[in-house]
Design a protein that fits this description.
heterodimer, A: mainly beta, B: about 110 residues, mainly beta, 6-stranded mixed beta sheet, 5-stranded antiparallel beta sheet, 11 strands
């Protein structure tokens, strides 16, 4: 049973560029959340997708957008990258009835 | 005041010691509480949920005090494998957003 998978695992971008990160949820899960974790900080909620809609959004600018596909996989897009966007981006999935989040190993983004 | 606050540590304890972590949260309407564990450069994983009556899972005991908006985690008989960062997590009322604290780093020393 595959857990949450994310790609790519590492990437380097320059300021102003755009990035797309991908996530496949754990089998049987229909809800996907994205978190940003800066060094030495706890994960910060970006948004959550359910039934292909953004169900809730954290305190992140519109440069951060996402999508959920019919197979429940999800993408996180970040436009006009800033140095401060350098972080570990974590995808987490859960089933509608439960609160335990299962995290992927993350995509580590470095913005130069 | 931050939504979820934890002492960042580090806590350096010898094997076999008992160690306690505390966490406070600002939203009195918060409905659910959890402790997650995160190993170095790995993803967070659920350690245990926290209930008002307190709950225990082997060497781990979690307590919730709603009146004081305070959550605790007690680890007894510490093992080397307990070395990790422990994240206090709160779910707000009517929310789908889990709010994480910064984490408390534990190092268990031989």
């Amino acid at each position: 049973d595959a857990g949450v998978t994310q790609s790519p695992t590492h990437l380097i971008k320059t300021r102003g560029q755009q990035v797309t990160l991908r996530c496949s949820p754990k089998s049987g899960h229909d809800t996907v959340s994205w978190y940003q974790q800066a060094l030495g900080q706890g994960p910060q909620f970006i948004f959550q997708y359910y039934e292909e809609e953004e169900r809730q959004r954290g305190n992140f600018p519109d440069r951060f957008s996402g999508h959920q596909f019919p197979n429940y996989s999800s993408e996180l897009n970040v436009n006009a990258l800033l140095l401060g966007d350098s972080a570990l981006y974590l995808c987490a999935s859960n089933s509608g009835g439960g609160w335990e989040l299962f995290f992927g190993e993350g995509s580590r983004l470095t913005v130069l | 005041r931050k939504e979820v606050e934890q002492d960042p540590g580090p806590f350096n304890v010898p094997e076999g010691a008992t160690v306690a972590f505390n966490c406070t949260y600002s939203n009195s309407a918060s409905q659910s509480f959890f402790w997650y564990r995160q190993d170095c450069r790995k993803e967070p994983k659920l350690l245990m949920s926290v209930y008002s009556s307190g709950n225990e899972d082997g060497r781990f005991t979690a307590q919730l005090n709603r009146a004081s908006q305070y959550i605790s985690l007690l680890i007894r008989d510490s093992k080397l494998s307990d070395s990790a960062t422990y994240l206090c997590v709160v779910l707000g009322a009517g929310s789908y957003q889990l709010t994480f604290g910064k984490g408390t780093k534990l190092s268990v020393i031989p």
